[in-house]
Amino acid sequence: MLSQDNPKLPPPCHLICPGLISYSVAWEWQQSLVQQRRNCPELTDVLILLEHPPVYTLGQGATLDFLKFDPSQNEYELYRVERGGEVTYHCPGQLVGYPILNLRRYQQDLHWYLRQLEEVLLQVLDVYGLDGERYPGLTGVWLEGRKIAAMGIKVSRWITMHGFALNVCPDLVGFHRIVPCGISDKSVGSLAEFIPGITIDEVLPQVAAAFTKVFGVELICYSS
């Protein structure tokens, strides 16, 4: 039993790192985890860090005007999902984070939550001596004018899903087929443009460590 002089122990959060997973599988996985926690809010929070094969996703209210290809031709894998935001692109070399958190344990404030996700990635950039930025009125993280990380979330009964995508060392060509996040006047960038040779394996532990600090949790490696 904790004494009154000891601080409260940080809440546990399962860390799952499955590697390269198809978007559809990860999406169904998130939906299942969220439903479980809607039914039983006491379940432990989860942070999934992974990569996806090339895929485009649209937020629930996103317009097709930001696609530079005909979606009816099915040349590229494309999903419309529950998150907010416009179109984005996932591919290998991009580290995607899906926090499944009960915000009742933190703050029941979606703006606060988005700023916390941004802070995680700003702290990661700081590890490498890079000065990331926020832009007022926009969600995400920028580095020397290039968008380095995008975010889109869905919250149901204060349980979160979807999350963030950090461009570590992806092939950025896929972004040329869209107007990323509906922002036409700012380009997309990657950490590899500033730190040649950087890898997902190197950055993933830094993201986990920053998440631990920003959200005040204890990450526990978990095999799904």
Low-confidence stretches: 1-6
Gap from first CA to last CA: 30 Å
- Principal-axis shape equals globular
Give the SSE order as H and E letters: EHEEEEEHEEEHE
Number of helical runs? 3
Structural class: alpha/beta
**Which fold name is given in CATH as the topology?**
BirA Bifunctional Protein, domain 2
Residue fraction in strands: 25-35%
- Reading side by side through the largest sheet, how are the strands ordered? 7-8-9-6-2-1-10
CATH architecture: 2-Layer Sandwich
Rg over alpha carbons = 17 Å
Largest sheet, if any?
7 strands, mixed
CATH superfamily membership: Bira Bifunctional Protein, Domain 2
Average of per-residue pLDDT values: 92
**Top-tier CATH class:** Alpha Beta
Function: Catalyzes the transfer of endogenously produced octanoic acid from octanoyl-acyl-carrier-protein onto the lipoyl domains of lipoate-dependent enzymes. Lipoyl-ACP can also act as a substrate although octanoyl-ACP is likely to be the physiological substrate.
Binding site for substrate: 83-90, 150-152, 163-165
GO cellular component, one term: cytoplasm
EC number: 2.3.1.181
